[in-house]
Amino acid sequence: MIGGSEWEGMSLGQMMLASFNEGREQPHPPFFHAAQVWNHDFYWRSMKPGGGGKPPERLLKFINRDFGSHEGMIRQFMDAALTQFGSGWVWLSYKGSGLPYVKSRSPIPSDNHGRLVISKTPNAINPLVWGHSPLLAIDVWEHAYYLDYEDRRADYVSAILEKLVSWETVESRLAKAVARAVERDEHLRRRILRKQRLAQANGQSRARSRARQGRQGDQEVARSRPVEA
Ligand SMILES: [Fe+2]
């Protein structure tokens, strides 16, 4: 990505995750630039002329299960958009797994997975840093709406949800996210299992070695003991 730097050769997404610094103190400076490019590109691709309306059936099933209804999801999304203090983003994501893919702490409880979640993030933060798969993003930085809507953020977000969002795109992202989550879970489970087996084998080998040393120690003590007359 940036020639001669530690980010060279990474895709935009890889660079964003690597420079996030696992949520410790501050992300590395390239994070904000990489994430804002990623976020804006994703945001533009979430819309189409004549969008909005009801989501397609498969997506709607997930929405009904996780938010009660389409209206319930819209209410929760609007609430997140209006309560994000200052600049940031609002997201609909798929939280595919409770397994620890990334070290950054997710704001959504770990047992709450295999479902859609809504989150709001400050500045450039993207739910990918918590291992969530973004499905829809709306920019709530002031520059996104002030020229058209002044301070009426709610009208801007409503206009996107009612007239612009491409639910077909969101549905196709969900299908990919679900498939990817199954694949990643399988891969990670195998890695965790391999690590556990290795740790177990190392533990057994250390125990054998300690037992051997213990026996040698006993023999040396026995040899050095003075012979009683
Ligand atoms: Fe923006």
Characterization of this structure:
With 229 residues, the chain is mostly helical. The chain has one domain (12-174): 3-Layer(bab) Sandwich (minor pseudopilin epsh fold). Helices cover 53% and strands 10% of the residues. It has a three-stranded antiparallel beta sheet. Helix 1 (12-19) crosses helix 2 (30-44) and helix 4 runs antiparallel to helix 6. It is elongated and about 95 Å long. The mean pLDDT is 88. The structure holds fe (ii) ion. Fe (ii) ion is lined by residues 40, 139, 141, 143-144. GO terms for molecular function: metal ion binding; superoxide dismutase activity.
Spell out the blueprint of helices and strands.
Elements: H1 12-19, H2 30-44, H3 57-67, H4 70-83, E1 88-95, E2 115-122, E3 133-139, H5 146-149, H6 153-164, H7 167-224
Antiparallel strand pairs: 1-2, 1-3
Helix pairs in contact: 1-2, 3-4, 4-6
The structure holds fe (ii) ion (FE2).
Specify the number of helices: 7
How many individual β-strands?
3
CATH superfamily (homologous) name: Iron/manganese superoxide dismutase, C-terminal domain
H and E string? HHHHEEEHHH
Uncertain runs: none
> Ends: how far apart?
82 Å
Order of strands, main sheet, comes to 2-1-3
Q: What would CATH call the class? A: Alpha Beta
